[in-house]
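Quick one, probably user error.
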């Protein structure tokens, strides 16, 4: 049964006819029954309808309300005091409410809180606490209007209605200038205006008890602006113990007056505030938008998916090949529909369930009911006793809520473990709620007032049109069929599909990577899909459904103004089928076509083994050389406007053709980038547009194509003395020398070349963002400004390039300021989850520090490490680390074979590492006889894993060179890591890749098995291989020498060893931390890991003992001047070492856990640290702040006592 409120004179038959006309595909007798009753408390009717099963699946409640023509309710909330916050049955529990207009909401740290799920939170007040906000249901297309928003006004539009939530401050004039401007704007544009406000004004016109000056001014404004007061009756909207008034107004313009009805004050619903609820209904002017159904692919039944997919493929009986375009379209659409049908049948829908407050309890429910009961009683009797009882209960109720929230938050933070939950918490704490795409600012200074206007502005900026589109006659004649058959084999398709993360967002065809990965395991689908892709390649064509891209505009981080259209970045969600095809073409280009003519050495982006630090090093090393030789260095840092979105299509094609890429590949790529369509949805409004230039951001081939185009600039005919570096669309050039005029002429040549190159490819240099800097320590120099497009580029003192601030004297102090400030802001956001004795565990906090904060500090530190030669710079880093180390510990300073016979061939391999030198051994048996045994010397800087892999690879090569055919060959190894590395689908290590190729070559004419055997288990062949490997590790033996590339793990191990040595040297050379260095003279990672694994309370107590900065009398005396004598034994000063190793009062606990007295440095080893922790916990000393006033037991208990 469905129910909807509506007003008007429509009859049941008219409504029935409208419903049937809206749903012509549904049965005419699907509407079973009608019931119509008068609405309570308002003119209109309440309609009850029943539907058949077919209608139940097709018709939703919200659709039905839109067809009838009514929004349900608009609530006007005034929350001067804190709301109850019960998200289940509290203030916002009414699911029939579409819009809440709220004044003086409860806020925390300047942001509204205690808000319900399922609503858009609208306000625009970035630097102040808002006093007027609005909540709008997610299925209503609400567009905020920034030009009419402030901390006291929130203005937004829904369809053709303009809503205002306003708070009229009693200290300011009435009406506010912004409200006057809005009223004039709506009158001029003939827009419908609805204002709900806390007026703080009295006038008998709206049934106030009297009239004051604010009321007179406000009524003049209402009359002059053609507004009407919707308030009905004299029920007070503001109720306190000594006054009841009507000060909350609903104002409506002439053209919207007939749409607002059923206005009433809800005094029957206690608000736990001194304002009452106001509600009214609005006739509908449009239908709600629906969200796209989403599937929970993580819970899909993949076995059932493959079974249904095989059945659907068999029933479809698709042709194996068709090189005509309609046939390709038909096969593509059929495969997409088959995949979607199979996954919809085996994956549940993803429901956004309502999130309940974890801190809510039955006790809070009881207190809330009691408080509401007392409020109703006080409103009715209006006696001081009842009001005092109500306010007392309200204070207790709010205190209980705060206590429950605090307790639950502490428990949640303390129980958080693992990288993914912690990363999710970090993103939540750093989330910017204002970074949302809503109303945007035009270049003419006006704001968009609808979702369609915002989308048009985003599209025109991110996907610009061209005056003269490229006219190309498409050639789809098949060619290079054999080439593309080799590129798109089922095995390569599976490998390409597995290169994508399985649950990435899908394109318009709704095919996620995990669907392709599972479908390609089915041989029938893999064959059909492979043939379809080969036909697409050979004809240079892509089906229409795969050329559609769903565009999502994501906010750029740390942008202050999100009404600027350039604060959003478009991400194209293309079909993963096309991305898979791009991946195959990318592999082909890198392995074949571009191998002889690769990307230039000046390119640092999207290149294996190159990062931003390499680009920075190329530029800064040139600058440093010039400064050290007392010369000048002129740098130009060029910025291109919307580079990826504005480059011409033909630029991509020409850059490929110049490198002699096969014509069939160029044709397919050119068709892919030229025939794209983008579609985007914002608040129910969908726009689709053809792309006229630019490459898809998020595409697999786009980075390579851009690099090829950029190569023309970086390798242009410019003087070789100019050092240049390109990273994506960031280009930098530096030239050095003694003569300023010569440097200026050389750099002007590069600027002119860059401008010509940009014009040739449809780009434009941003003159305002392009920066020129003269790097020198000279105080006086003269150089004429550079020019671009005839406009001067003045020289500046600093520039930010690839995230690093470069100053004219290259001192790095400004960059250090930025780095430390950014780290402090980041950690300050995370402090909400950390307390002295509660919060995230020390291990989790250390992960946040080492995984998020410290990388942001040490980024490009290879470039600016010279600044740490200054003591002041090191001290600033120490202070930053010290503030973080109060919550965590262990931070490196930031400145620093078979016993049976068989007819097959049995190969036993092993690797060994001894005294830093590696060796490998192989032993080959056949029919119980030894065929070969050999020891290999692999030199230094080789890991055991490499030795194991090398042994298998050499064994396979020996058998391959001996022309072994038609044998069962078994490789035996005791390294499970080697087996897993050889059987994985994605192989990146060169040593493993070479071994994999050798084994594959051997497997062409033989049957290969790799078997794990336990090491040192008296297996004859395995023991022999082990002894041969140990012999090979000896450099003095007569063994074959092999050189292997140094593995990353070995480099990391050496770096970590060096870091530990530097850390130890730094620790030994410190003149501070006397007690800590005495307690732990040698750094021990095992001890640190144990300490960091403790809970916050235990870690706090251990830090007191290890540092001496605790409740010890010696430490207290330094602060207060009291005697440092131990209050328990009276013998000597009470220090940490005295407490642990001597004080007789704690002998019982000391003998129990520590045995005989020891020195502190003996107790902080990996073997004894747990005993020390047990002693500290059992003694209980670190839990008593003032021992002189402690009530200590005389016998037994947790305290130990003197012995004898």
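Nope, works fine. Designed sequence:
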């Amino acid at each position: 049964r469905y129910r909807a409120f509506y007003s008007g004179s429509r009859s049941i038959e008219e409504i029935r006819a409208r419903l049937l006309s809206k749903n012509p595909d549904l049965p005419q007798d699907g509407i079973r029954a009608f019931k119509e009753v008068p609405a309570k408390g308002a003119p209109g009717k309440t309609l009850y309808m029943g539907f058949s099963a077919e209608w139940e699946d097709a018709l939703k409640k919200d659709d039905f309300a839109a067809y009838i023509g009514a929004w349900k309710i608009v609530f006007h909330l005034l929350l001067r005091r804190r709301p109850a916050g019960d998200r289940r049955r509290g203030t916002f529990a009414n699911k029939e409410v579409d819009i809440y207009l709220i004044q003086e909401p409860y806020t925390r740290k300047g942001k509204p809180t205690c808000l319900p799920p399922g609503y858009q939170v609208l306000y625009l007040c970035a630097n102040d606490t808002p006093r007027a906000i609005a909540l709008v249901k997610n299925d209503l297309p609400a567009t905020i209007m920034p030009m009419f928003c402030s901390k006291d006004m929130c203005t937004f539009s829904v369809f053709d209605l303009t809503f205002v939530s306003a708070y009229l401050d009693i200290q300011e004039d009435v009406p506010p200038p912004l409200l006057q401007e809005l009223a004039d704007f709506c009158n001029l544009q003939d827009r419908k205006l609805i204002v709900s406000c806390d007026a703080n004004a009295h006038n008998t016109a709206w049934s106030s008890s009297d009239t004051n000056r604010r009321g007179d001014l406000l009524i003049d404004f209402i009359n002059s602006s053609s507004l009407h007061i919707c308030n009905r009756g004299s029920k007070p909207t503001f109720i306190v113990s000594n006054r009841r008034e009507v000060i909350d107004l609903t104002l409506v313009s002439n053209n919207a007056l007939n749409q607002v009805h059923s206005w009433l004050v809800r005094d029957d619903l206690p608000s736990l505030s001194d304002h009452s609820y106001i509600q009214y209904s609005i006739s509908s002017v449009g239908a709600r938008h629906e969200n796209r159904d989403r599937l929970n692919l993580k819970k899909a039944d993949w076995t059932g998916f493959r079974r249904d997919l095989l059945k659907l493929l068999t029933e479809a009986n698709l042709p194996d090949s068709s090189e005509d375009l309609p046939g390709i379209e038909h096969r593509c659409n059929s495969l997409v529909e088959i995949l979607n049908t199979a996954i919809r049948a085996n994956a549940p829908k993803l429901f956004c369930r309502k999130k309940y407050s974890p801190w809510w309890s039955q006790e809070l429910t009881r207190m809330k009911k009691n408080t509401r009961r007392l409020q109703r009683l006080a409103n009715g009797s209006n006696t001081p006793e009842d009001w005092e009882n109500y306010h007392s209960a309200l204070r207790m109720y709010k205190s209980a809520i705060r206590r429950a929230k605090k307790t639950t938050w502490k428990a949640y933070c303390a129980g958080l473990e693992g990288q993914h939950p912690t990363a999710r918490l970090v993103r939540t704490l750093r989330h910017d709620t204002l970074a949302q795409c809503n109303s945007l600012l035009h270049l003419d200074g006006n704001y968009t007032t609808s979702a369609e206007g915002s989308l048009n502005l985003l599209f025109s900026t991110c996907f610009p049109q061209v005056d003269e589109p490229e006219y190309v006659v498409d050639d789809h004649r098949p060619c290079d069929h054999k080439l593309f058959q080799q590129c798109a084999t089922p095995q390569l398709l599976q490998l390409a599909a597995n290169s994508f993360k399985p649950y990435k967002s899908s394109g318009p065809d709704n095919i996620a990577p995990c669907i392709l990965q599972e479908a390609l395991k089915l041989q029938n689908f893999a064959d059909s899909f492979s043939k379809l892709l080969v036909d697409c390649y050979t004809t240079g064509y892509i089906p229409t459904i795969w050329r559609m891209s769903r565009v999502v505009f994501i906010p750029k981080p740390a942008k202050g103004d999100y009404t600027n259209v350039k604060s959003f970045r478009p991400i194209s969600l293309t079909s993963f089928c096309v991305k898979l095809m791009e991946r195959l073409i990318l592999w082909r280009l890198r392995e074949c076509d571009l191998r002889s003519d690769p990307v230039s050495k000046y390119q640092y982006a999207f290149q294996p083994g190159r990062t931003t630090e390499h680009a920075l090093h190329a530029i800064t090393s040139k600058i440093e050389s010039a400064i050290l030789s007392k010369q000048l260095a002129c740098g130009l840092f060029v910025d291109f406007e919307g580079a990826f979105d504005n480059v011409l299509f033909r630029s991509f094609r020409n850059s490929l053709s110049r490198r002699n890429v096969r014509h069939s590949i160029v044709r397919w790529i050119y068709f892919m980038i030229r025939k794209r369509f983008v579609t985007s949805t914002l608040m129910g409004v969908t726009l689709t547009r053809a792309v006229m230039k630019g490459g898809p951001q998020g595409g697999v081939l786009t980075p390579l194509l851009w690099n090829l185009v950029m190569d023309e600039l970086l390798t242009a005919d410019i003087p070789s003395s100019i050092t240049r570096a390109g990273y994506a669309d960031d280009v930098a050039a530096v030239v050095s020398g003694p003569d300023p005029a010569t440097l200026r002429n050389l750099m002007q040549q590069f600027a002119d070349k860059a401008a010509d190159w940009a014009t040739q490819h449809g780009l434009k240099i941003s003159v305002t963002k392009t920066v020129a800097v003269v790097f020198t320590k000279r105080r006086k120099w003269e150089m004429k400004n550079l020019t671009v497009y005839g406009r001067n580029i003045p020289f500046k003192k600093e520039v930010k390039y690839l995230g690093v601030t470069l100053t004219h004297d290259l001192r790095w102090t400004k960059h250090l300021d930025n780095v430390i400030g950014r780290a402090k802001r980041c950690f300050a956001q995370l402090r909400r989850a950390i307390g002295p004795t509660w919060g995230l565990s020390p291990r989790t906090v250390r992960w946040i520090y080492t995984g998020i904060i410290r990388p942001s500090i040490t980024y490009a530190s290879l470039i600016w490490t010279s600044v740490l030669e200054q003591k002041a710079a090191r001290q600033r880093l120490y202070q930053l680390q010290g503030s973080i180390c109060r919550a965590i510990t262990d931070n490196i300073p930031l400145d620093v074979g078979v016993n049976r016979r068989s007819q097959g061939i049995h190969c036993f391999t092993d690797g060994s590492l001894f005294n830093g030198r590696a060796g490998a051994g192989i032993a080959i048996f056949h029919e119980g006889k030894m065929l070969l045994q050999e020891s290999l010397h692999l030199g230094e800087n080789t890991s055991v894993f490499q030795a194991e892999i090398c042994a298998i690879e050499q064994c396979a090569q020996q058998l391959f060179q001996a022309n072994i055919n038609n044998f069962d060959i078994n490789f035996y190894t005791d390294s499970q890591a080697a087996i897993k590395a050889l059987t994985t689908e994605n192989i990146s290590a060169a040593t493993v890749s070479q071994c994999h190729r050798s084994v594959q070559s051997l497997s062409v004419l033989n049957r290969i098995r790799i078997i794990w055997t336990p090491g040192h288990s008296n297996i004859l062949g395995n023991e022999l291989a082990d002894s041969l490997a140990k012999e090979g590790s000896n450099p003095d033996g007569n063994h074959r020498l092999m050189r292997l590339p140094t593995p990353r793990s070995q480099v990391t191990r050496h770096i970590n060893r060096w870091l530990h040595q530097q850390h130890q040297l730094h620790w030994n050379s410190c003149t501070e931390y006397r007690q800590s260095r005495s307690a732990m003279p040698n750094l021990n990672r095992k001890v640190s890991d144990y300490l960091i694994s403790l809970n916050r309370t235990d870690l706090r107590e251990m830090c007191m003992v290890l540092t001496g900065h605790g409740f010890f009398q010696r430490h207290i005396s330094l602060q207060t001047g009291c005697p440092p004598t131990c209050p328990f034994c009276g013998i000597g000063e009470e220090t940490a070492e005295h407490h642990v190793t001597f004080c007789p009062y704690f002998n019982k606990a000391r003998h129990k856990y520590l045995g005989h007295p020891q020195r502190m440095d003996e107790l902080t080893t990996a073997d004894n640290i747990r005993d020390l922790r047990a002693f500290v916990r059992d003694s209980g000393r670190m839990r008593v702040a003032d021992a002189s006033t402690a009530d200590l037991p005389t016998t037994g208990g947790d305290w130990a006592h003197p012995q004898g």
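DSSP finds 40 helices and 38 strands in the chain.
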